[in-house]
DNA sequence: AGCCAGGACGGTA
DNA sequence: TACCGTCATGGC
């Protein structure tokens, strides 16, 4: 008999911070969901991006399909995301994890819609990019790529903090250790699906609990501090968005210990989807520009501001597209 | 072996 | 405001 087994530490009140409904059109026949996607969307282009994450532990990819456990309230459906045609995304529930309640299925649709940023109209970006020194090649090579995001705020903040000042491969290793030590997993058909630890769980840890994972002491402190803020309800997506202004949201984040300009903009870009969020200190961005410009030295901040002066309100998409040149 | 990595902090001038 | 030493470890 195949059953889902869930780790003991499952008395976990945290609800991931995601929309309860997709904004766009979608269908639900009780067994599977279909999301309509904009014309400027390419499933395979987004899959190429996701396939490149080395050592990713929160989803896996097989035969051009994504498999992932999505925690919604007290349920943890395991979904398969596929696209027979480029213009529609199909979500199937795995095994016996089909949520019986319609609102849970809707939340899953909302999660996927947000993950792939299906609501943004990319046409203005493509228009401005056509004549842009750095972007014209990016938008033709990666046409249909979305700003694939991190819908949950806590996960996005942790990923940003973990990634500070270390190479990406090591960052993935640290994330995996964090998830496998303090997250929970659902097992189905011999596969294990990991779910990111809750803020409550991390908030209750001691610095040494994280430091043994080879996180620096400071990173351990930062993660616990952010977890406490979120667990106490003091830091939410809603509050950040309620500032009504990108710069105010950035200030709110930067005031938190461990979150500097890079992390703040990274999270505003990948989680809150602020179009003008711009992690200008990002080494990856610097390397991409260096690569495209064929220069030996990294661009200065002034040069980047010059090159990006026409990206107004599309800085986050520009950054995301330029990252694609790095792998 | 040595430089670099999807930075941030705390102190100093 | 602007700069600098420090944190600390793995990847290549």
From TrEMBL:
Family as reported in the entry's similarity comment: Belongs to the alkylbase DNA glycosidase AlkA family.
Pfam families: HhH-GPD, OGG_N
Family matches, as PROSITE patterns: ALKYLBASE_DNA_GLYCOS
Domain HhH-GPD: 162-327
Cited InterPro entries: AlkA_N_sf (IPR037046), Alkylbase_DNA_Glycosylase/TA (IPR051912), Alkylbase_DNA_glycsylse_CS (IPR000035), DNA_glycosylase (IPR011257), HhH-GPD_domain (IPR003265), HhH_base_excis_C (IPR023170), OGG_N (IPR012904)
EC class: hydrolase
Name of the protein in question: DNA-3-methyladenine glycosylase II
Protein EC: 3.2.2.21
Reactions performed catalytically: Hydrolysis of alkylated DNA, releasing 3-methyladenine, 3-methylguanine, 7-methylguanine and 7-methyladenine
SMART domains assigned to the protein according to its UniProt record, in alphabetical order: ENDO3c
Protein species of origin: Paenibacillus profundus
Keywords from the UniProt entry: DNA damage, DNA repair, Hydrolase
């Amino acid at each position: 008999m195949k059953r889902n087994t869930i780790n003991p530490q499952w008395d976990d009140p945290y609800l991931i911070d995601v929309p309860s409904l997709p904004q766009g059109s979608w269908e639900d026949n009780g067994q599977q969901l279909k999301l309509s996607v904009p014309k400027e969307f390419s499933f395979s282009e987004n899959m190429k991006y996701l396939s490149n994450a080395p050592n990713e532990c929160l989803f896996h990819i097989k035969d051009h399909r994504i498999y992932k456990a999505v925690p919604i309230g007290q349920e943890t459906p395991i979904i398969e995301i596929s696209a027979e045609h480029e213009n529609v995304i199909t979500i199937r529930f795995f095994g016996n994890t089909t949520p019986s309640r319609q609102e849970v299925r809707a939340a899953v649709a909302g999660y996927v819609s947000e993950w792939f940023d299906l609501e943004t109209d990319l046409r203005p970006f493509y228009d401005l990019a056509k004549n842009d020194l750095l972007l014209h090649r990016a938008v033709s090579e990666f046409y249909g790529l979305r700003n694939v995001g991190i819908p949950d705020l806590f996960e996005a903040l942790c990923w940003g903090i973990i990634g500070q000042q270390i190479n990406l491969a090591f960052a993935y290793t640290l994330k995996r250790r964090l998830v496998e030590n303090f997250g929970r997993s659902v097992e189905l058909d011999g596969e294990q699906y990991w779910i990111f630890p809750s803020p409550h769980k991390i908030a209750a840890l001691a610095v040494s609990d994280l430091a043994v994972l080879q996180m620096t002491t400071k990173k351990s402190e930062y993660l616990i501090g952010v977890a406490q803020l979120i667990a106490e309800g003091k830091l939410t997506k809603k509050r950040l968005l309620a500032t009504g202004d990108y710069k105010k949201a950035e200030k709110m984040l930067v005031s938190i210990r461990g979150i500097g300009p890079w992390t703040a903009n990274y999270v505003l870009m990948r989680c809150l989807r602020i179009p003008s969020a711009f992690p200008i200190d990002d080494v990856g961005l610097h390397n991409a520009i260096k690569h495209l410009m064929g220069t030996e030295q990294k661009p200065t901040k002034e040069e980047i501001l010059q090159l990006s002066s026409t990206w107004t309100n599309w800085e986050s998409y520009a950054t995301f597209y330029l990252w694609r040149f790095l792998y």
